[in-house]
Amino acid sequence: MKEAKTGKTVPEEVVKMIFSNISSIYQFHAEFFLPELQKRMEDWHHNPRIGDVIQKLAPFLKMYGEYVKNFDKAVELITAWSEKSPPFQELIADIQKRKVCANLTLQHHMLEPVQRIPRYELLLKDYVRKLPPQSPDRGDAEKALEMIFMVAKHSNAAIAEMERLQNLWVVYQRLGLEDDIVDPSNELIKEGPIQKISTRNNSTSEKYLFLFNNMLLYCVPKVIQVGAEFQVHLRMDVGGMKVRELKDAEFPHTFLVSGKQRTLELQAFQDAIDRKEKRSETFKTAAEDTQTVLSHPQAEELGRRAPQWVRDNLVTMCMRCREPFNAITRRRHHCRACGYVVCARCSDYKAELQYDGNRPNRVCQECFIFLTGHTVLEDREGKHRGILEVRAAEVSSRSLLCSSLQLLDKNGKGGTRGWFVIPQDDPLVLYIYAAPQVRPGSNVPHGDILLCPRDIPGHPGTS
């Protein structure tokens, strides 16, 4: 410290950062703890007890926690200053040559206070074990041991908290230190790369997820990693988040994460599935630990939670009017309430959705009726519909069973796909329509093809 005050070797504040509160620890032992123990040892024949002394002074031993938390940083400072300051390195070498150092390094001596509390605990355990059952010090010694144990626990907790904050700060730096994300009370649970499945072009792109105790961050790795390593594209609150594993032949190992603001269809990397230690699989496991199940929006959730979007490539015709899509006059759109793939005419409605801040969004006719309670005029409902199209929709809506099937030829090979309907009023007749409703093997939730909000009991449009 004398060298530091001269300002020639190392700044005084650096020395204080290296040695933390060691002067207070030394003062406590020199002026209180050691004199009290020495006084009791001198009077041992008349009062063979030390438990009461340790009980009285044990709470002050918690000051070791501050020193322990700072130890790793102190060692890093010594190494850094030894490399960049030759005078500092010479000073340390000179101190270590002194007889009092016993040829040990400065770092070795600095480690002694870190080991002091565990040594106290071991020494007191041995003392209690060897005390006679009738010893007057047994009760106090056992209480003192319990207090020392709590002090050791406090030091360990301080180390764990220090490491947590350091790791959390590193994560925040990788995310760009955004103000609405940085919070020292957060806890990082899992992180890892993931594949995002696009509902538009049926492709995948690499993303990165950070799962905290209160939020899920959906991020994109930056091409030029100057400063932040990732760019946060979406923040989803963990509260109310639902997770479900999907069975998809085209995209194996997929799962759905649904929050109030957005629904994501994700795929874990293959090597993460084969090797459990990979981080994307650990995220998938952590997400499933929420023990929640995702289903297609039910009546009570419609408009309140972001839906699962049906992929564009899985359907060949509008999921409401059953008219085939084409690239020019009949393009695909998604209903923001139920997630169905519908044509422009069937989604020519606007409804306020709670999960999107009650802003008007494109919705299909059925969801519009359910969410607003308004009826649709008959001339608008049947506008520009062909005879066969209307018939297909009407028959499917009052069917015993309907589904997309594929006709096989005599050799058992696949042929024409069709939309098959068994109507309720004529169950012995099988209707076959030229265009399929949904491609075979698609991942559309079972039973969702025919389920419309107006079919739900209690809906305003239900008689």
Automatic annotation (TrEMBL):
SMART domains: FYVE, RhoGEF. Keywords: Cytoplasm, Cytoskeleton, Guanine-nucleotide releasing factor, Metal-binding, Phosphoprotein, Repeat, Zinc, Zinc-finger. CDD domains: FYVE_FGD1_2_4, RhoGEF. InterPro entries: DBL_dom_sf, DH_dom, FYVE_RhoGEF_PH, PH-like_dom_sf, SOS1_NGEF_PH, Znf_FYVE, Znf_FYVE-rel, Znf_FYVE_PHD. One of its GO terms (biological process) is filopodium assembly. The keyword Chloroplast does not apply. Gene3D superfamilies: Dbl homology (DH) domain (1.20.900.10), Pleckstrin-homology domain (PH domain)/Phosphotyrosine-binding domain (PTB) (2.30.29.30), Zinc/RING finger domain, C3HC4 (zinc finger) (3.30.40.10). GO terms for cellular component: cytoplasm; cytoskeleton. It is found in: Cytoplasm, Cytoskeleton. This is Uncharacterized protein.
